[in-house]
Amino acid sequence: MELLYLEKFGKAFIPKRVRPELREYLLKAGIEEVPYKFFGGLFWATLVITYLIYFSTIFKPISSMGSFVILVMTFISWFVIQSALSFFIIMCIYVYLNVSIFNRTKLIEDALPDYLTLVSTNLKGGMSFEKSLWAAIKPEFGILAKEITLASKKVLTGNDVKDAMEEFSMKYDSPILRRSLNLIIGEVESGGRIVEVIDRAIEDLKKTYILKEQLRASTVTYMIFMAAIVIFITPALFALSSQLLKIIINVTGQLGGAVSTMTTMSMEISQSSIKESDFRTFSILAIGIISSFSSMIVSIIDKGDIKSGLRYIPVFFTSAIILFFIFTQLLGKLFGGLTV
Q1: Is it the case that residue 272 has pLDDT exceeding 70?
Q2: 286-316 residue pLDDT tens
Q3: d(C-alpha 287, C-alpha 300), whole Å
Q4: DSSP-derived 3-state class of residue 121
Q5: What is the rounded distance in angstroms from the CA atom of residue 246 to the CA atom of residue 334?
Q6: Which tops the pLDDT comparison, 314 or 216?
Q7: Which of 95, 174, 207, 283 is geometrically suited to a Cys-Cys bond with 238, CB 3.0 to 4.6 A?
Q8: Are 77 and 116 in contact (CB under 8 A)?
Q9: Does residue 89 contact residue 46 with C-beta atoms inside 8 Å?
Q10: How many Å apart are CA 110 and CA 114, to the nearest integer?
Q11: How much is the pTM?
Q12: What is the Rg, in whole angstroms, of the alpha carbon atoms belonging to the chain?
């Protein structure tokens, strides 16, 4: 009963005109049903978190104000907090789904040459084009096999082969898949030599794969250089800067104590406008930003796109932060005599 309530509640937040597009988008990520229960649960989860944030941070400062001010501030703060939480969670889910769709697309592209090879073999054995497509479906083709199976079900229910294959080619944002299937569909419509077209498409796909591997091999040096900068050099520089800040604070403090006759100057010298803890926080944030953008650059160099580089961000960030604290400890011992 509770799950049914969550499902109805989740549907209330999604307009009917958006539901078909949402379902199509989720199908690309391998999710067959729209998770309305999840959307309903998400609302209640953000509501509870908003409640905790409001009464722990906002309610006390405004509790002494007038009733009308409390009402207005409560409404505004509640709306802003829950909207921000919902937006943040939805954006995280959106990024996750985009990465899933990207990975599924890459798996389809990788399996496409082997699948088309079996289709060509079946055609050469005397099968019709439709039977060749369905007979070439093998479990090892993974997602591609599932998508071709869905297309075959549509054909069995009365749809044309051309329409089913075009729908499949447009489902994923893959120029390679779309170009290959469009060539094959065009040749089927014209009644030409389908086998020759498929063989040429297979040859082009293999050449494209070889060229990508060669380009990737030629850019390994740049990737290693970028990774070394992010993981080793950047933490070392920030750790060194932290130690220099300690030295400067120590020296200015000693100068402030030594200059006893110049009271005003001693006060100005002994007080530092930068705190060590603030600089450490800044260093961690800067390392995180540098790691994120560097992982995207490495992904562009390696794969030619940004999405595949999202998995590098935790690796780069974690490694850089760990080395930052290690370098900080080592340099602290090295310059310990200067900061006493």
Answers
A1: no
A2: 888 888 888 878 777 766 667 666 777 788 8
A3: 20
A4: helix
A5: 13
A6: 314
A7: 283
A8: no
A9: yes
A10: 8
A11: 0.64
A12: 30
